[in-house]
Design brief:
Shape: globular
Number of helices: 14
CATH architecture: Alpha-Beta Barrel
Largest sheet: 8 strands, parallel, barrel
Bound molecules: (3S,4R)-3-hydroxy-2-oxopiperidin-4-yl beta-D-xylopyranoside
Order of helices and strands: HHHEHHEHHEHEHHEHEEHEHEH
Strand content: 5-15%
Length: 376
């Protein structure tokens, strides 16, 4: 494949009327994919649910193998699922998840060791400091130890910050004190010295919360505790966060000497209840036409806006590709995204690059078209 041929094919590619198979015929016999297009820049990941780990839907299984080179456990490694009772660990699904990643030579992310949400009910009943320290030790050492040398990176700590950058008043903070953060990272490092260790949270591009995250990383570093990366969840919408804040965040976190990753990417085009001026978030918004406007499909005009938003974001990611190690989508296709049921149940959401039929959307092509060379 000569560069000249690629250049000759480029105008055709930029003419966005052409389908993916037209792209293929013009560039290479190899199938095009996100992971191939971005192979020299960063990993392209997706979160997997139970059905996807069991390869229950052939279209999903094929797409996952073709497009992604990193996987994150969407739910099955969370405390309530992996340690449902004090003395019971349930590794059935997480073993399968890790095997699937190994079979496909993927960068495997464990999500998540310490999080106030989706915690096992029994763990929420822990009463004193010693008990909490003991359970945290057992939880982290057992899980990370089991997958030593197999899981490549761990979201050690998830969502430990409030919006103003202060520490969330979780059960871990209440019982253990601020040292629980250092303890969590040290226990994970001890159980697998080779695995990368991350802090992961949403709204990490907002200035106040960003400052809090920077402080958290600096404190760990100052105490000699290893932290390898910051995961910015990237549950975004068409306008927020601004490209300026995203860029500033990439630069600020990278300046700490840690890897930057976008870990739970989805871009919502339907309204968020808390964006409504004066709306009562507690009112029953289920079934509201205003909150669920595109039940019959996404209009072209919105499809175009979503494609432009993804294009702008990925352009920025490429500009800073030496600081970004992974971009992970929170799900495989629109039909199974958690956004159909959160923050309001039963809506029709369109946040990902693949549609309900597992076909690439306009947003997929706008991201792919940023790369001149899209071959394996
Ligand atoms: C979500 C899952 O996608 C849903 O299936 C589940 O019901 C709730 O959790 N931040 C995180 C993720 O770190 O673990 C969450 O995943 C989304 C928000």
């Amino acid at each position: 494949m000569t560069k000249l041929f690629l250049l000759a094919a480029l105008p055709l590619l930029l003419f966005n009327g052409c389908s993916q198979s037209t792209h293929q015929e013009n560039i290479t016999d190899e199938p095009l994919s996100l992971k191939a297009a971005f192979r020299d820049n960063f990993h392209i990941g997706t979160a997997l649910n139970k059905s996807q780990i069991n390869e229950a839907i052939p279209e999903a299984a094929t797409l996952i193998q073709k497009e992604f080179n990193s996987i994150t456990a969407e739910n099955m490694m969370k405390w309530m699922h992996i340690q449902p009772a004090t003395d019971t660990f349930n590794f059935e699904l997480s073993d399968k998840f890790v095997e699937l990643g190994e079979k496909n030579d993927m960068f495997i992310i464990g999500h998540t060791l310490v999080w106030h949400s989706q915690l096992a009910p029994w763990a929420n009943e822990i009463k004193d400091r010693e008990e909490m320290i003991g359970h945290l030790q057992n939880h982290i050492s057992t899980i990370v130890g089991r997958y030593k040398g197999r899981v490549n990176g761990w979201d050690v700590l998830n969502e430990a910050l409030n919006e103003d950058g202060s520490l969330r008043n979780s059960i871990f903070l209440q019982l253990f004190g601020e040292e629980y953060i250092k303890a969590a990272f040290e226990l994970a490092a001890e159980a697998d010295p080779e695995a990368e260790l991350y802090y992961n949270d949403y709204n990490l591009c907002n200035p106040a919360k960003r400052e809090g995250a920077i402080e958290l990383v600096k404190k760990l570093q100052a105490s000699g505790t290893r932290i390898d990366g910051v995961g910015i969840q990237a549950h975004w919408n068409l306008n927020h966060p601004s490209l300026e804040e995203i860029e500033k965040s990439i630069l600020d976190y990278a300046a700490l000497g840690v890897k930057v990753m976008f870990t739970e990417m989805d871009v919502t085009v339907i309204p968020n209840p808390w964006d409504l001026q004066g709306a009562d978030v507690d009112q029953n918004l289920e079934g509201s036409e205003f909150m669920n406007p595109y039940t019959e499909g996404l209009p072209d005009s919105v499809q175009t806006q979503l494609a432009k938003r993804y294009e702008d974001i990925f352009k920025l990611f490429l500009k800073h590709e030496n600081k970004i190690t992974r971009v992970t989508f929170w799900g495989v296709n629109d039909g199974q995204s958690w956004k159909n049921n959160w923050p309001i149940k039963g809506r029709t959401s369109y946040p990902l690059l693949f549609d309900r039929e597992y076909k690439p959307k306009m947003a997929y092509h706008s991201v792919m078209d940023l790369k001149e060379e899209k071959i394996h």
